[in-house]
Design brief:
The complex is a heterodimer of chains A (about 400) and B (about 220). With about 400 residues, chain A is α/β, with parallel strands linked by helices. Helices cover about 45% and strands about 15% of the residues of chain A. In chain A, helix 8 links the parallel strand 8 and strand 9. Chain B folds into two domains: about 90 residues, no CATH class; about 110 residues, no CATH class. The N and C termini of chain B lie close together (about 10 Å). Classes of the chains: A alpha/beta (about 400), B alpha+beta (about 220). At the A-B interface, helix 1, strand 6, helix 13 and helix 14 of A face strand 1, strand 2 and helix 8 of B.
């Protein structure tokens, strides 16, 4: 059975038919993705979509760029500077980035009808383009890029035929068309697939998360951007009225700020047995899945810009989501329909209390969230976008 | 049963969105940008709203009203913009003029305007609809009914909304075909009067099916 057929049971009615019809129009065309690695959110989507596109008769491939430590250091610094951070970019480092990609261009098969280069690592491969249409896929917000970094990078981007951003406000002014494609989640992956009750209980038991009281959950790195300390403070306000449990699940970065936040969270958990801090390894997908399904209310109180798909994942599991007012989150949560957008600790606490005091709203919002995620944030929609791009740009 | 010589081909669509280098960080800039953006952007943020908010009641009716309510928190402007029925205006330029007039009048009664950070501004977009002919072809009213019930909701949008607003087919593709190919003028008139404003594509589909079922009953089907 073709992999796309498995999505008929989860995608909106008629979507798989449209995918198949669109694929017929570009059957046999060569569609190449190039990225800097096989980890991270964009890679999760590619891991699912590339084989499906192959099943649909498209010659879909995924290549990875490689390099030495100096190349990776420059890539990280350049991306951080394009995201608006202060970084020192040296001429030697930038020259190394260009030189390594000239080597990559010789090693990789870049011959395709449509090439999608993801983020910074493969961007300068565009200098080696021989044919086909080339698109730069930017997964981050580059609207506030550092001027020096943008001066270096902009000429590269303008050698592409188009760029694709996750939101219109993430785009920088460009001389090529800028398309908008939201990221997506794979409903059949370990992170989002249905879990049998027994499997879910086993995972929660292994994580030592009891289900004896309403569970508030935030999944996200222990960084200022995800504001886990703000979530603890919101929980404390709620706790004076409701006997609830808070789980903060995520990963810690190795910078001093993140380590300090983690230390504060651990201290809070030591003082209150109803707070659980779970440091999860990269790839703990089933654990996150089980936690989201066990949650009564999911929080995503991020304060940084970025298209974090946590709300879409939680909505897919039928959970109401209370999220911070960042562009990516406001795009996912329909305020007062699938959850609430909040701008403060007090706002988060108020909305949690409101839902706990009006519990009939929880399943109603959860059901609306699942339908919203089904329409707007599944990879079936992403496949439609990719195929529409192919039909439009490389017919 | 009447049989059409030209079958109706149900066609779905995928919206390929394009960001424009046009942004408004306050209501005055919204007015300026509204006057100058390509007309496709006006279509995208008004009629296109119904394609993107399929499963839910379209609370604000268009992106401009939603932005005024949610980001600017100017409920008065939001309400004034929300009542603009894009289906009631004959051309997209008339729709643009209506929106411009509302914002202009509103600004005259306003002192200072609220300035927003870039991330919360209004970011204009337009779209290209990639059309996708779907499986069922109808030559009879029964086949039309069966196809209508099964197709992706984007086909309802393309034939009922896009056909009226962008392709100048005042009563939409369904009514046009029923009138010219099946000679069902009365049913076509009823379908042409369906109000697609402030509802969902699934509810429009439901109303269409009700009307077609009624016609089938009258024909003894």
């Amino acid at each position: 059975m073709s992999r796309i057929a498995e999505y008929r049971q989860v995608a909106p009615q008629g979507t798989v038919d449209i995918i198949e019809r669109l694929a017929e129009r570009v059957r046999g065309r060569r569609f190449l993705h190039v990225s800097g690695g096989r980890l991270g959110g964009p890679a999760e989507v590619l891991r699912a979509t590339v084989p499906i596109l192959g099943d649909l008769g498209i010659d879909a491939r995924w290549e990875i760029t490689g390099g030495d430590p100096a190349y990776y250091a420059t890539v990280r610094a350049l991306q951080a500077a394009l995201e608006g951070g202060e970084r020192v970019l040296t001429e030697d480092g930038l020259a190394r980035y260009l030189a390594m990609n000239r080597v990559n261009a010789k090693k990789l098969d870049l011959d395709a009808d449509l090439v999608l280069a993801h983020d910074v690592p493969p961007a300068s491969l565009v200098d080696a383009r021989a044919g086909g249409r080339w698109i730069w896929r930017c997964h981050f917000d580059c609207s506030e890029a550092q001027p020096g970094a943008w001066t270096f990078f902009r000429p590269l981007v303008e050698r592409f035929d188009a760029a694709v951003f996750s939101l219109p406000q993430y785009a920088h002014r460009l001389g090529v068309p800028a398309y908008v494609l939201h990221p997506s989640i794979d409903p059949l992956s370990d992170k989002n697939r249905d879990l049998a009750p027994r499997e879910m209980q086993a995972v929660l038991a292994a994580l030592r998360v009891p289900q004896d009281k309403p569970l508030l959950l935030q999944v996200g790195s222990f960084t200022r951007g995800h504001d886990p300390l703000g979530v603890v403070n919101a929980y404390r306000i709620v706790k004076t009225h409701h006997d609830v449990r808070l789980v903060l699940a995520g990963t810690a970065e190795d910078d001093s700020e993140s380590l300090e936040i983690l230390a504060n969270l651990r201290e809070a958990a030591q003082q209150d047995r109803d707070i659980t801090v779970l440091e999860l390894p990269v790839g703990a997908h089933v654990q996150i899945n089980a936690l989201q399904r066990a949650a009564t209310i999911v929080l995503q109180k991020s304060v940084h810009e970025g298209f974090d798909l946590g709300p879409a994942e939680a909505m897919w599991k039928g959970r109401p989501v209370i999220g911070g007012a960042t562009a990516g989150i406001t795009q996912q949560i329909l305020h007062d329909v699938t959850g609430y957008i909040v701008r403060s600790v007090e706002g988060a606490a108020f909305r949690v209390r409101h839902l706990l005091n009006n519990r009939e709203q929880i399943p109603r919002m959860g059901a609306a969230g699942r339908e919203h995620a089904r329409r707007a944030f599944l990879i079936t929609r992403h496949l439609l976008d990719y195929l529409a791009l192919m039909v439009h740009l490389a017919p | 049963m009447r049989t059409a010589a030209n079958p109706f081909v149900f066609t779905g669509c995928v919206e390929l969105r394009q960001a424009l280098d046009a942004h408004a960080l306050d209501e005055r800039e919204l007015l300026d940008r509204l006057r100058e953006v390509p007309i496709g952007a006006v279509f995208f943020h008004t009629h296109g709203y119904f394609l993107r908010h399929r499963p839910f009641m379209t609370a604000w009716g268009n992106d401009f009203a939603r932005w005024a309510a949610v980001e600017v928190r100017d409920q008065v402007l939001a309400e004034r913009l929300a009542v603009v029925d894009p289906f009631a205006l004959e051309t997209l330029e008339a729709l643009r003029e209506e929106l411009v007039t509302i914002v202009d009048r509103h600004l005259r009664g306003l002192g200072a305007v609220v300035r927003l950070p870039f991330a919360r501004g209004f970011h204009f977009q337009q779209s290209q609809l990639v059309e996708v002919p779907l499986g069922p072809r109808a030559t009879t009213l029964r086949e039309f009914r069966d196809g209508l019930a099964a197709v992706d909701a984007s086909a309802i949008y393309l034939h009922m909304v896009d056909a009226r607003a962008r392709r100048g087919r005042g009563s939409g593709d369904f009514a046009e075909w029923l009138r010219t190919s099946l000679g069902l003028a009365e049913l076509a008139d009823r379908i042409g009067r369906i109000d697609a404003y402030l509802t969902t594509l699934e509810r429009v589909r439901g109303r269409l099916l009700n009307l077609v079922d009624g016609a089938l009953e009258e024909e003894g089907e």
